[in-house]
Structures are given as C-alpha cells and as structure tokens.
C-alpha cells in the first residue's frame, strides 16, 4: 500500500491527466444522452455546445440550471391546486360570448380553460393607467377603502419615497383590523436590499403577514433546486371587489439603482383596474400562491364571492402560467392568437426573445397579409436579453413586421397584445423564453369594443413616443454589434 501511494505521488501529473480526460469524455457522452431528453432542440443544442466546449464547467451548470422544475414539495402542492381548480371549473360555465365574435375567439376561450381551468367571466369593467406614479397612488387609494381583506403580490416590492404612501395605506388598514396579506418574489425584492429591508420592517411593525415567494434555498427536499425560478406576477385585490394587475412593480420608476439614475432610465408601464366577477378569479390565483408559501389554504368562500358590481360589459379570462404548468400556457395562448389574426397584431414586450414556434407564428402572420407591429425599447437594461432580442429584428423586418423603438431613456416595460379588434391580452408575461418556462406569470384575456378603444389609445401614445426601425438602417449597423447580438441569442437559449 505504501508503495502504491508513493507511486501515485511520483506520477500525480500523469494520473491527473488521465483522470481529467476520462472525466471529460464521460461528461460529453452522458450529456448526449441526458440533455436532449424532453427539451426544445434549440435549448438542447445550446447546452450541448456549452458542455462540449468546457465539460467540467458546462455539465455542473446544467445540473444546477438545466431543469425548469419546482421543488418536490412545491410540485405536490401544484398538483393539489390543479386538481381542485379543475373540479371547480367543471361546475362553472363560461360566460356567453356575443354571436358576432369570431370562431377563433371561442377556441381561445376553450384553450385557456383547458390550460389554466379558469372560466370566462362576463359583466366586468376596467380602466387603464400608464402613468407610473399615478397607478401607485390609485392603488393606495383603493387600499384605503378596504373593509375586509387586502391581498398584494408583486415580483419586486420595496419601501421608498414613491411607494411610501402605498405602504402607509396597508398599515392603516391593518391597524384598523383589515386582514392584509403580502407576497413578494424573494430574489426580485431581495435584489433591492435597502428598500427590501425597510419594507419588511414596516410590515412587521404593523403585524402584517408576509412571505417571500420561491425563497432561494438551493438545497431543498434533499436535492439541489434551480435558484432562478421566479414568481413574476403583479396584483392587488381589495375586498375581492377591486383588482389591479399588469406589468408594474411596486418600487420607484428608476428602481433606486445608481446606474439607472445616472443614465436617466425610468420604466414605462401599463396597469389595469378591474371590477366585476374577474376580481374573484384574481383573488383565487393569489390564494394559490399564498398556499404555496404559507401552507395556509384560504377558504374558497372567502376568496370567491359574487361581485356587487356587474354593470360592466367586458368578458375576461385569467391565464396563469409558469413551471408548474407543463403546457407553457402563455406561449400556447400567444401562438393561437397569432395564427388566428386576420387583420392586425400589436405586441408590446420589453423582452422579446421568442422560441421558434412564436417567431414562425409572427413571421407567417406578416407574410399572409396581417399588419404586425412590435413595440420594444430603444435601449435595454439587461445586456444579454437586449442583444438577444435585437438578433430577431432582421427576420421580422424582412417579413414586413413594423418595429417601434420606444425612445430612450425610458424602458418600455409594459406587456400587452391585441388581435384584430377582438381581444386584448395583458399582464406580467414577457414574450421571452424565461416567461414561457421559468417564471410564474399572470395574463388576462379581455374582450369588449370599449376596452379595445382604451388599449388603442395606449398604443397610439406609445407610438407617438417611439421611432420606427427601418430595414436599411438596421442592415447598416456595425458588424461587431451583429456578432454580439447573435452570441447573446445563442446564450439566451440555455434554459
């Protein structure tokens, strides 16, 4: 034994080399079997390329980030909720659509019900708000009217000078005996440390129950869990009667980042305020997230109640999505609508990194004569996503898609989609691979002529603040930028 040990010490360089190459070859072979399993071809190729270039780095990264799967206990809860939602849906008929709606809209309603088990509700009313500070002030005003419950859920929440009044309203109602429940994404809020800590102290001081969603605990259930699965929803529900949802986070418009303030960056959002039966559906979605994080199952009768306001004329249907849904609900809905469009598609998305199916749907729509417009930001706040997004502009422009660049220094963070003059989809979901696979999102499909007029006014406002990208201009961009865009596109597929 002593001789063997001495021999190993004398030949450690040679043995290390043999072990390195053996492990290198083994990881390459194993990756060819493991990586492509139940994975999109583009994502599989990107992961395989990363592993083949640097196996000892790429393969461990794949083990950490290669599976868009929730922790085991969370998956068990998801199965419970999905089963309960489908049982509930069996007894709730969809609201009647008008006789003149296109047949494809009826198909979209059926698809959404199959995907998320939420029914189509009628007699809703809604208003839109695109001014950042006004929406926060309006939500605070609604909170102050609460008599029984206030439910708040945001990807990013923080206490600063712009959100101070909203948190003051929460605390006032909590002190008055109203039940206030707050959820925020762990990483989304934690990444704004000063504001995050101030928020937690304020909520704790007034006895408000709050939980971080998807807490970053890499080792859960006895196994490593992917740390970048996030809850990206944004909702405020007051007494189950008033509901806010959309794209905006609850933090100052510059996100309190020194780099943003130095560059003059600020965010442009679209939020919607709803009344009517759809608010109970939003409340039910909040209750599912509350169950995941708190272990408390809120009684359905306290969450879903008959709406006292049924004077509206809009049909609304909620579409939840995320890693708990294997069907990629938001992507399925977007693609169905793109292929159904006959006259016009307007898509507003801050991060546009489509998968192959969505890109094909948009390009096909443009080539068959549908007017397609895409609103994105002229500048970006995330280097990788911004440049990956730009890599798609050439094929879109060549197909006839109009690309509008929202002028700097504003980041267009709003997210909505309109199809013909028939339907609007708005909410928290970007049109990128992260929103399709890794983030819990909330989208709302809205039908109604009056609402379409409101959203068209928003689109016209955004158009007036944007410039149209010309194909000749785009083709003349520096070669180095083309290289960066394409490399970032490749990296974005590693999900």
Automatic annotation (TrEMBL):
Its main location: membrane. It is a multi-pass membrane protein. It comes from the Bacteria. Gene3D superfamilies: Endonuclease Chain A. One of its GO terms (biological process) is cardiolipin biosynthetic process. Keywords: Cell membrane, Lipid biosynthesis, Lipid metabolism, Membrane, Phospholipid biosynthesis, Phospholipid metabolism, Repeat, Transferase, Transmembrane, Transmembrane helix. SUPFAM superfamilies: Phospholipase D/nuclease. GO terms for molecular function: cardiolipin synthase activity. Residues 227-254, 408-435 form the PLD phosphodiesterase domain. Its EC number is 2.7.8.-. The chain crosses the membrane at residues 12-33, 45-65. InterPro entries: Cardiolipin_synthase, CLS_N, PLD-like_dom, PLipase_D/transphosphatidylase. One of its GO terms (cellular component) is plasma membrane. The keyword Repeat applies. Pfam families: PLDc_2 (PF13091), PLDc_N (PF13396). It is an enzyme of class 2 (transferase). It is found in: Cell membrane. NCBIfam families: bac_cardiolipin (TIGR04265). This is Cardiolipin synthase. It comes from Brachybacterium faecium (strain ATCC 43885 / DSM 4810 / JCM 11609 / LMG 19847 / NBRC 14762 / NCIMB 9860 / 6-10).
């Amino acid at each position: 034994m002593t001789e063997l040990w001495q021999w190993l010490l004398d030949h450690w360089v040679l043995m290390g080399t043999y072990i390195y190459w053996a492990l290198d070859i083994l990881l390459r072979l194993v990756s060819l079997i493991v990586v492509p399993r139940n994975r999109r071809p583009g994502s599989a190729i990107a992961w395989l390329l990363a592993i083949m270039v640097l196996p000892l780095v790429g393969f461990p990264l794949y083990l950490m980030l290669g599976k868009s799967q929730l922790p085991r206990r969370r998956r068990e809860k998801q199965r419970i909720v999905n089963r309960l939602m489908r049982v509930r849906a069996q007894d709730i008929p969809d609201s009647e659509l008008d006789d003149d709606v296109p047949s494809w809209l009826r198909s979209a309603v059926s698809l959404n019900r199959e995907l998320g088990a939420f029914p189509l509700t009628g007699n809703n009313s809604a208003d839109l708000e695109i001014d950042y500070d006004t929406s926060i002030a309006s939500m605070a005003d609604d909170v102050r009217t609460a008599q029984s419950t206030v439910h708040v859920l945001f990807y990013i929440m923080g206490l600063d000078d712009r959100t101070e009044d909203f948190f003051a309203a929460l605390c006032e109602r909590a002190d008055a005996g109203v039940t206030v429940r707050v959820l925020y994404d762990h990483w989304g809020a934690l990444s704004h440390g000063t504001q995050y800590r101030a928020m937690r102290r304020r909520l704790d001081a007034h006895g408000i129950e709050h939980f971080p969603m998807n807490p970053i605990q890499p080792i859960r259930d006895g196994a490593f869990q992917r740390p970048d699965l996030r809850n990206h929803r944004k909702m405020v529900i007051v007494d189950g009667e008033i509901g806010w949802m959309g794209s905006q986070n609850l933090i100052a418009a510059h996100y309190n980042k020194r780099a943003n303030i130095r560059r003059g960056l600020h965010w442009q959002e679209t939020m919607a305020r709803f009344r009517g039966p759809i608010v109970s559906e939003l409340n039910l979605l909040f209750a599912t997230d509350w169950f995941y994080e708190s272990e408390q199952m809120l009684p359905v009768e306290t969450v879903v109640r008959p709406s006292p306001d049924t004077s509206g004329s809009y049909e609304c249907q909620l579409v939840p999505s995320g890693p708990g849904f294997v069907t990629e609900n938001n992507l399925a809905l977007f693609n169905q609508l793109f292929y159904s469009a006959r006259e016009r598609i307007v898509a507003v998305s801050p991060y546009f990194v489509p998968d192959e199916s969505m890109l094909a749907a948009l390009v096909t729509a443009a080539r068959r004569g549908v007017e397609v417009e895409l609103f994105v930001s002229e500048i970006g706040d995330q280097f990788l996503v911004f440049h990956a997004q730009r890599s798609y502009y050439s094929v879109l422009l060549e197909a006839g898609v109009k690309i509008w660049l929202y002028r700097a220094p504003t980041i267009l963070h709003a997210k909505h989609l309109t199809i013909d003059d028939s339907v609007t989809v708005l909410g928290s979901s970007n049109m990128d691979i992260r929103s399709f696979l890794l983030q819990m999102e909330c989208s709302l499909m809205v039908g109604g002529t009056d609402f379409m007029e409101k959203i068209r006014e928003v689109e016209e406002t955004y158009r007036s603040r944007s410039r149209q990208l010309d194909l000749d201009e785009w083709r003349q961009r520096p070669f180095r930028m083309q290289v960066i865009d394409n490399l970032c596109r490749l990296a974005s597929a590693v999900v």
